[in-house]
Prior knowledge:
The structure holds 2 protein chains of 2 kinds. Chain A has 12 helices and 2 strands, in the order ααββαααααααααα. Chain A is mainly α. Chain A has a domain at 56-240: Orthogonal Bundle (MetI-like fold). Chain B is mainly alpha-helical. In chain B, helix 1 crosses helix 13 (246-279) and helix 3 runs parallel beside helix 6 (133-158). The N and C termini of chain B lie far apart (50 Å). The chains are: A mainly alpha, B mainly alpha. At the A-B interface, helix 1, helix 3, helix 4, helix 5 and helix 6 of A face helix 1, helix 3, helix 4, helix 5 and helix 6 of B.
Amino acid sequence: MLGLITVGCVLLITIYLIISGLPAIREIGFVKFLFGKRWASTAAEPEYGILPFILTSIYGTAGAIILGVPIGFFTAVYLSKIANKKVRSVIEAAVNLLAGIPSVVYGLVGMLVLVPSIRKIFSVPDGASLLAAIIVLAIMILPNIIKVSITALDAVPEEYEDASLALGATPVETYFKVSVPAAKSGIAAAVVLGVGRAIGEAMAVMMVAGNVANMPSLFESVRFLTTAVASEMAYSSPGSLQRNALFSIALVLYLFIMLINAALNFFLKKDKEK
Amino acid sequence: MSKKRKFYIFLMRSIMIVTTAFTAILVLFLLAYVFIEGIPNITWELLSTKPSYLEERIGILPDILNTVYIVIATLIFLLPLGVGAAIYLTEYARNQRVVTTIEYAAETLSGIPSIIYGLVGMLVFSNNFGTSLLAGALTLVIMNLPTIMRTTQESLKTVPQSYREGAFGLGAGKWRVIRTVVIPGCLDGVITGCILSIGRILGESAALLFTAGFAHALNNFFTGLRSPGATLTVALYVYAKEEGEFEVAFAIAAILMMLTLLINLSATLVGKYFAKRKNI
C-alpha cells in the first residue's frame, strides 16, 4: 500500500490548491481575475488582474523555446550521430553539469552579467527585463532538451539509417531526413519538457526579470506567474484577499502544468507504441 | 552531387558544430566565471562563523549546517517511502490498473514546479510544525519521491527473475526473498536515487523559501529541525537579491558548483562500479 503514497500526494496538492485558490477567484470574479490587466494588490483600491502574468509566462516560455530548442536540437543530433566517443562523453558531462547547477546560481550570473550587458547593448534604462529572463530560461532548458532528444535519436533503429545510406544519401542528409523524423515524438517530448521547466521556474527569473507587474514587453521589467507568487508571499498577511489571490495564481499555474503533463504523456505514449 | 545538396550538407554540418561548441563554451564560461569570482571570497572566517551585525561579518556556517541537516532529514523519510513504494510496485502489485495509476501520479509529481511544492508545503507542513527545517524536509520528501522510486524500480527490473525463483525453490518466503535477494540487487538504484536526490535538495530554493525560512542561527541537529533556517541556496538568494552582498553570494555559488561537480562525478562512478559488478 506504500505505493499509493504518490497518488495521495498528488491528491493532497490538488485539493489544497483548489481549496485555497477558489475563494479569491470567487470574490474577485472569474473574468476580472483572469483577464484583468492591472495588478495592484497593495493599492488603496486593490485590483487583481493576472493577465500580465499569464501573458508574460507564455511569452517568456515561448521565447526560451525559440532560443533554446534549435541550439539543443542541433547539439543533440551532433552528439548522437556524428561526434566521436570522447567528444560525446565530455560534452555530455558538461550538459549534466548544466542540468545540476542550482537555479539561484543562474539567477546570480544573469543578474551580474546579462542584466548589465542588456542595459549597455540596447541602451535601455534597466536591463532587468523579459529578454534577460528569456535568455536565462533558454539556458536552463538546454540540458533537458539535449538529453531527451539524444535518448530519442539513439533509439532510432540502425537499419533505417543503413537503408538511406545505401540509397545514396550522405550521412548528414540521412540524419536530418531519416533519423530526425523517426525520433520526432521523442524530440517533441523534449520540447514539452522544456516548456514545463521554463513555465515553472521561479528563483532565477525572479532575480533577472525585474518583478514589476507590467504587460509583457521585451525590454521592460515583468512578472511571471511564478514570481508573482514568490515575491508577495513573504509580506502578505494570512487570510487576506491578497494572499488568497496568490493561491489562485498558483492554481492557474498548476492548471498550465497539468495541461503540459498531459501533452508530455501523449508524446511519450506515441513513442512507446512504435 | 548538385550544388544545392552540397550546400545543404555544409550548412547543417556547420550549424551542428556551432551549436555544440556554443553549449560547451557556455558551460566553461559559467564554471570559470563563478569560480573566478567566488573562490577568492571563500575564507576560513566565512566558512566557520555565523553572521554578526555587531562585528560586521558574514559567516555561512549555519547555512552549511542547515543544508546538511535538511539532506539527512529528507533522506531519513525519503528512503523507506521511496524504496518501499518501488518494491511494492514491482514485487507485490498484481492489479495493473493500480500500477499505472501510481506511475502516472509519480510522473505528475515530477512535473510540478518547486514553487507549488513550496506553497503546499507551507499550507500543510509549516502551518502544523511552524516554519522549520522539518517542514522544508517533508516538502522535499514529496518532491524527490518520484526520483528515488524510478531509479529503484529500474534496477529492480534488472534483477533476473531466475534469482527470485531460485530462492523460492529453496523454500524462502516472499519477505525473505525480498530481504536477501531483491534488496541487495537494487542497491545501485537506491544509491543513484540518493545521489540524484541530494543534488536536487542542494539546488532547491523556491520550495524552501516559504517552508524552511531564512534564519541564520547556529543550531544542533534536533533544535535545528524545529527552527527556521536557510540552506546554502536560499542564503545565496537572500545575500544577492535582498542584501546586495555579491561577494558572499559568489562564494556560495562557487561552493554549490563544486558540490554539483562532486555529485555528478559520484553518480557516474557509482553507475560504472555497479555496471562492472553486474557483468561478472
